[in-house]
Amino acid sequence: MERGPIDEIAGLLNDTVSNDADKVHAATGSLDRLSLLPRFPFCLLSLATGEGENQGQQIAAATYLKNLTRKNLNAAAAHDAPYSKVSNDFKDQLMCALLSVQQPLILKLLVESFREIVIAEFVNLNNWPQLVPQLRSAIQISNLFDHDGTTSTINALVALQSLLTPFQYFLNPKLAKEPVPPQLEKISEEILVPLLGAFHSFSQEAVSIHGRTDLEKEKAILIVCKCLYLSVRSHMPAALAPLLPTICHDLIGILGSLSFNDVVILDDKYLLRLKSGKRSLLIFRTLISRHRKYSDKLMTDIMNCVLNLVRYCANISKLDNASERIISLALDVVAHILETGPGWRLVSPHFLFLLESAIFPVLILNEKDIAEWEEDGEEYIRKNLPSELEDVSGWREDLFTARKSAINLLGVISMSKGPPVGISNNAPSKRKKGEKNKKSSQRSSMGELLVLPFLSKFPIPSEANAFEGRVLKEYFGVLMAYGGLQDFLREQKPEYSKTLVCNRLLPLYSSSTSFPHLIASANWVLGEIASCLPEDMGGIVYSSLLMALAMPDVEDTSCYPVRVSAAGAISQLLENGYFPPDWLPLLKAVIGRMGDEDEENIVLLQLLSSVVEVGDEQVALLIPDIISSLVGKISMRIPSGAEPWPQVVEQGFETLAVISQTWHNFMLEEEVETESNEKFVGGQALMAKALSELLQQAWLSSSNQLEGKVSLPESCIDKSSNLLRFIIVSVCGSDAIQELKIAELVLVWADLIGEWHAWEETEDLSVFDCIKEAVSLHCKYGLINFLSRRVPSPPAPPVPQPSIIESIGAFVSQAILQYPSATWRACSCVHMLLNLPNYSPEAQGAKQSLVIAFSQAAYSHLKNIRNKPCSLWKPLLLALSSCYLYYPDTVERILQKIEDGGFAIWASALAFSSTRSFEPGFSDESEIKLIVMSLAKVMEQLLGAGNPNGSLLQECFASLMEASVRLKEMQEAEGEDSDDNGESEDDNDDDDEEEEDDDDDDDEDSEHEETQEEFLERYAKAALDLENGMVEEGDVADQENCAIELGCLEKIDEFGVVSSLIERYGHVLIQGGQIPSETISTFLTSFPHCAFFLPSS
After folding, report:
1. Using one digit for the tens of pLDDT, what is the confidence trace for 470-497?
2. Threshold 0.90, pTM exceeds
3. Which residues contact 916 (CB under 8 A, 6 or more apart)?
4. In sequence order, what are the beta bridge partners of 557?
5. Which residues of 63-87 are buried (b: 16+ CB within 10 A; e: fewer)?
């Protein structure tokens, strides 16, 4: 290959890491232009694999190649191309590069490019027939299989792993039972099966008496284990099934070679062996849970293998993370075996051994727990005290621990009841109906027969044994065990749980000696079994948890985990139906506990949100009593200037949004006459003042104004909108606007949402509610800078800034264009903003800019979905209609610019949507009125253009008549319904109550736990509907709340407009005979005065 292009690209890649921004920008642009050349990927590949070259340049070339490959393949997929743009020559060279490259990072980047091509061609299109033979040949002649081999076996196996990665998942969600992909069968037959001979040889060498092999073979063993796992994770290739006994024997040998003594040296080879062992256990777990047909005969050997592993649970505190993960997976495999048909027979003889020697040693308190409690309380809580309070104290997928697996296994054992007891031959053969189920339910579970008696042997700590470390550590294990018995306790009578709590948990709270580690675990247990407690236990449990929530640190021991676990347990208790007699002490305790520790404050704020949501109207009455102190706590954490907001402030805004929404809902439900009730008026005013001061601090502080820009975390925009909306609806006069600085706050808020692009992270639509209230407030009182913005005073530069309505318009336009989930609400804002009654002549420019932005966004979105009529047509067509009524010529130019013939396409779609053939249909009177006016305006424009005989005009006229008839029928029917509603209202209420009762009974009778087959069939149907366009993206549930506001258009007499149009052009419109006579006849029946202008001929 010529060096000229390669040297040029190499220089540009070097420039991309320059400190000169202009140089980087120029180099990036040049590379983008060169990327269109056919030989460009070859040059990148040559630079990435060049020996002795600049390593930074190699990484840059490999990275650019990866991104370019993904970009080109995604572009081909977007156009439904039947083939990719990757040539066979390039694929061959990429494969050669993969097999020969030595640097691990370059190999990783090239493998990512390889995987993109594999997915696009081999997986999706079933092309690249030479791939499998080529890779098989490369493995056969690689260095571990051929002494004279020049290619790397490890590289070839890495390529094989990348090839298998897509097949670890089901590929066709439209099939409830997906067959094994033929590509996977081919890989298994031609590569994996021949490879297993070498794998057996390598593994035998590894587990020999010396116990070690060379590093490269250890890597090969690990990669083959990964390949086997990927192959069977979802499917079972036919070629692998007969070889499972041999495979499992080799995997058992690998696991047997592991050592769990604290004297093991963790060198690179042994770490690879541990990873191979981990992958072996994942394969066992997959075989047991997904491939029972093949694994039942192997289960005995697997069970013996994992029993040998869990013997080392006593050493858990001395093990490194990788070794602990092995123990954790071994416990998981035992649990999976127990849940199978033959599981009881295999596991039940070992129940006592598992409980005494495996599960309980993992549960007891150890040195690592104590150190983690003091050094990293957050990590300790995540691992040991999970709750429902967000991620702060919940399990994360990456936090696999042996303790978590032990608790899970204990729960499975406690629920086990074993096979039914056989019936004697002498027993009578007849029995009453239901007797079999009764006997089955009376069988005692292992929780009652084994687990609880075992746990009861350990005494509860008291003053007498408080200084015995063994007692404390063992009782910690007892508490952790209780936390895993919630399913078992749920099957028992509530009194069972009551006895357990009273005798084994509550005494810890009344002890004169403090046991922080035990109290934290007891809190967690109470939260876990909250649903199992009888009603009369709620009060004493709540009091104990409230006391733990306020527990101060004990000398040098932090009680942070105690307070966090108490918060989680209180939340669980409230959600399970316990309501304290007085909510105010809890609210004050939560707010009073907030201090300088952000992590703890976040948990307390989350608890406060839960309390407000659960307490609802009972707590709503108390909100004015706490709002000021809560806002004060949050305001203290807001940083000055443009510093990033800490998470505690974000959580604070989220909690305030919940509180304000709860108060607002309470006011609506109670229909409180605020003007005559001083208590509610004062409460509303107090809340509005406190929230306004908080937003002023965040948005209008002097430091923010000096820097000229307000920056909020993206997750806070919707919560801030909720708070601002509450302040706006609290306004009772123009004085309040001044006092609360609403005009200034709305201006800053509009600037923020005008530049908001965070919809992919959160799609909370409260911003639209705030837009509605801000527009309503402007219509009542008029807001400064709403329609046009004043030029800033010196010394600020006289640069024109967007007005409030223009910033809102920018947000709405982006919502229409980019986010289908917001289309309905965004389009409803279009009508609200354009139909304002108080546009001054000076503000017409702002109105026209809105029309331009809305038209571009709505038509661009419509263009992407117009191939198949759907419900999202409705808001987009109506938004364009409102724009067209104000500036028809402008809208026509925009549509024509976006697409040749765009105006005719929109007008035709509008005409079609107004007919009864359009399945989603228009059912709202204001919608049909807007359509009638829009069609009339379209016809006037077409007639003015001198094209009276065009098919589009005839189509619009037929639709106009049909829509006019429908609108008149709706108006007449509405008048009749209003007369009848008063008489039938009471009867309907009674009927509704009876229907609700019937529905409740039906729900109880029809309660059914979905099977795996039903789940797969349901999701297959959903995937098929999605592909066929039957499921549409968008906030369809909110359609009823998105009625369009015609505003000043309400005053227009739409029938007068239609009559005037027909009076002027009826003789022209009727020519050609293209309009069905039935349509004309139906129209004249409703509008007989138009008969003179529409002769029947």
Report:
1. 999 999 999 999 999 999 999 998 888 9
2. no
3. 962
4. 554
5. bbbbebbbebbeebeeeeeeebebe
